[in-house]
Amino acid sequence: MQELMDQYTSSKISRALLDEVIKLAKQFQKKFQRIPAFMEVCGSHTMALARTGVKKALQNHIRLISGPGCPVCVTDQATIDAMISLTDEENRIICTFGDMMRVPGSYGTLMQAKANGNDVRVVYSPNDAVRIAEQNQQKEVIFLGIGFETTIPILAAALKEAEEKQIHNFSIWMSTKLVEPILRHLLNNKEVALDGFLLPGHVSMVMGRKHFEFLAAEYHLPGVISGFEAVELLSSLRRLLMLALEQNALVINDYQSVVAEDGNEHAKYWMNRYFALCDEPWRGIGTIAQSGMDIREEYRHFNAKEKFSVPMRSPRKTKCRCGEVIRGLIDPPECVLFAKACTPLNPIGPCMVSSEGSCAAYYQYMREE
Amino acid sequence: MDRITLAHGDGGELAHQLIQQVFVSYFHNDAYAKFDSALFHIENGQLAMTTDSFVVKPIFFPGGNIGKLSVAGTVNDLAVSGAIPKMMTCSFIIEEGFPIKDLKQIVHSMAEEAKKANVQIIAGDTKVVERGSADGIYINTTGLGIVPQPLTASIQEGDSVIISGSVGDHGIAVLAARGELGLMTHLESDCATLYPMISAAMKASKNIRIMRDPTRGGLATSLVEICEDFQVTIELEEEAIPLKREVQGACELLGFDPLYLANEGKVVLIVAKEDEQNVLDAIRSFPEGKEAAVIGTVRSTEKGQLLLRTPLGTTRRLYRLSGLLLPRIC
């Protein structure tokens, strides 16, 4: 009964918040003669905004632009191709998060590699890959390390376990990304005009509210850290609108049950113990200095890029516009391939595959036909 | 003898012993086992027939095992077609080295489920494959039923959509039981034989238009198929769909949509509005149906779309499950 009450109350609050958000958005429009534009940085927010109907309910009132927050989507094609090529050697087990399995490489997918008999395994945690290495000591086990600040600490946890157990046949092919450098890049390039950010709840859980203060201090933009329920998203949008209306550049934590001022010190310690900043290539953008993390020199025996090489082939070109989607320049339906040549069953680009991808969110939750 | 060997599948003495000690002793079907096929009489009229293979991993999971699933799944397919399940066959592919103790437990569960639906298991087969050629045990079942009164599927505007309980339990319970999620949950699979409940629902209303058991692909995929096959538009109320806290939590963590997760003990029915309460009462009188709820309405008899109204009052269209990677769950 309590559960029913919670659900009932929460949707009543959601509807009231929605009215309030629309009212504030109208005030903004009146004051600035345009619709407010906010970017959600996190792929899970993209999905949640579409699934809960918040995006649709606000489509005439707020421009919600999906940012570069889906880890698979921002990974450049050469890296994806290299990861798929890794599976071709004998005596290797490639472990990955499930999202990567169907991501189209230039010459096939991990799923096709698995069907061809290559040993590719989906795991839910990198530590599972360490255990697979432990059980298969005659084989090399490589984990495909894709993710943001939310994933990097769990990669560190896997390395910690491998170090403690002295496992020598485990390594990670790193291609992790950081949120701050990409946001700076987008803002410095001024490709997309924004009135504020809906900031990622999970990245903030690791990095803390203060981590995003640069948005206010240097770019004079407000940001609100949000949770993932309809009621939380609407509450954060309401606060973001209030800040934007007053042009009050503040970074507010609206996910206090999970996010602390300084984040999770423990997670940050282990991240920095095993990994150091590195330059990273981003899909559709190019290499951004110091925008990712790679394994530190003293742990190079866990670095798959040091241990193995793959034949480099130039990526096949397609009409896929994922690169523009992740920069917030176009909405998925503006791509000619969307829902025609490119669908979740036959994806041309990663944004259609990942459970956090903008194209997948649109296809699943916003498509009318 | 505590493990299956290749000799158990050779049709000789060991195979005979296995049949006598395991299958006949649980299924009590030796009367049918004297010829190469089972001979039986059945009433005149329309018959229903269905077949299904079961490869679930793990073989034992909270709330059931592959044996229970293999009987319940086939009985339910018959029952939702409006049939009275009568006869079943079962066929086993077993990996060399499989513990006979486990096989007995599986066969025992099959016999128990068959009893609940008053179905007789009258023929079967066992093959044993070398270690590594299969993953433990696979079961195929085929079911035969009689249909006294075929469902008309004459779905009308205003009809109600009813689900017999919470969605996604089986999908999450089995995923969690694989131990790969790092999730600790006490959630049990909803795996159950639904014939007695469905039979009661059919007694309570002569206006059940159609029924489905939303297994793989979940509630959404089953209803999309109905919408397309019969060109009706159904609108579901997201808030009305029963969902267990554990399932909701796991879905949030893993990025699954509960409407697309498998159920193995649920039925979704479309029934005339005026019979809605009678059918609900009938279903709720069974333990597996006590959370039954009206979850939507047939909005029109054109277009063939499944719509979901969110708590915010917006609607979005639901499509078939597409491109989600799920392991073996049934």
From TrEMBL, chain A:
GO BP term (any one): protein maturation
Superkingdom of the source species: Bacteria
Molecular function via GO: 4 iron, 4 sulfur cluster binding; carbon monoxide binding; iron ion binding
Keywords: Iron, Metal-binding
Pfam families referenced in this protein's UniProt entry, alphabetically: HypD
InterPro entries named in the record: Hyd_form_HypD (IPR002780), HypD_1 (IPR042243), HypD_2_sf (IPR042244)
Similarity comment text for this entry: Belongs to the HypD family.
Name of the protein: Hydrogenase expression/formation protein HypD
Species of the source: Thermolongibacillus altinsuensis
Lineage: Bacteria, Bacillati, Bacillota, Bacilli, Bacillales
From TrEMBL, chain B:
GO biological process, one term: protein maturation
Family annotation (CDD domains): HypE
Domain PurM-like C-terminal: from-to ranges: 156-306
Superkingdom as given in the UniProt entry: Bacteria
PurM-like N-terminal domain segment(s): 36-147
TM annotation in the entry: none
Family label: Belongs to the HypE family.
Protein name: Hydrogenase maturation carbamoyl dehydratase HypE
Gene source species: Thermolongibacillus altinsuensis
